[in-house]
């Protein structure tokens, strides 16, 4: 029985890898070394641009009718959501369900710059830019731009600390040729 479970595990991993290699072509663009789990995630593929060295944990939900741009060297924990749209709730005398026209501010692009880590279960909403070198804590809801090299947490997410001191940041940037 132990060997059957082990065999099933390896077959499942091989299947997931094959599906990933097929589904990656659906993204608007992608770099090298992108790992994601399409069999238990949901993506609006045609609106997502992925850089190189991107890991998207299982259970991801990335949805937008505008562009979601993800840089290089990005890590997403499991169950991260990126939602790039909103509903028009301003029409008097109409049910929200029936409103089809959108306002310009209802759908805004999302940008995640290089070297970012997004923790498990984080939610990133429309119009947000997460600047390079930042960390979004598990469970955070990001509603505003995140400054570079900062750590944000909470609902709504707010800066709780900087990753480096000013001196260490200069050294870090120099070593990575930022």
How does this model look, in words?
The structure is a single chain. By secondary structure, the chain is of the alpha/beta class. Helix content is 19%, strand content 25%. The chain has helices at residues 2-23, 166-176; strands at residues 34-35, 42-43, 48-50, 54-56, 61-63, 68-70, 74-76, 81-83, 110-112, 117-118, 123-125, 129-130, 135-136, 141-142, 150-153, 158-162. It has a seven-stranded mixed β-sheet, with no helix packed on it. The chain has a five-stranded parallel β-sheet with strand order 2-5-8-11-14, with no helix packed on it. The longest helix has 22 residues, at 2-23. It is globular and about 60 Å long. It starts with a helix and ends with a helix. 23% of the residues are buried. The model has no long low-confidence stretch (mean pLDDT 95).
Could you give a quick summary of the protein structure above?
The chain is 19% helix and 25% strand. With 178 residues, it is α/β, with parallel strands linked by helices.
């Amino acid at each position: 029985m132990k060997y059957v479970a082990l065999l099933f595990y390896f077959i499942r991993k091989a299947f997931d890898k094959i599906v990933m290699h097929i589904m990656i072509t659906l993204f608007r663009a992608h770099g090298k070394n992108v790992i994601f789990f399409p069999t238990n995630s949901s993506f609006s593929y045609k609106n997502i641009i992925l850089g190189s060295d991107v890991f998207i944990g299982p259970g991801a939900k990335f949805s937008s009718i505008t562009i979601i741009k993800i840089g290089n060297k990005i890590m997403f924990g499991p169950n991260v959501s990126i939602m790039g749209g909103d509903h028009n709730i301003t029409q008097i005398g109409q049910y929200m369900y029936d409103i089809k026209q959108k306002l310009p501010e209802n759908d805004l692009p999302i940008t995640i710059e290089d070297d970012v880590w997004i923790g498990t279960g984080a939610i990133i909403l429309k119009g947000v830019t997460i600047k390079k070198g930042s960390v979004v804590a598990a469970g955070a809801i990001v509603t505003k731009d995140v400054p570079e090299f900062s750590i944000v947490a909470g609902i709504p997410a707010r800066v709780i600390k900087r990753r480096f001191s000013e001196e260490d940041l200069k050294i870090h940037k120099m070593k990575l040729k930022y």
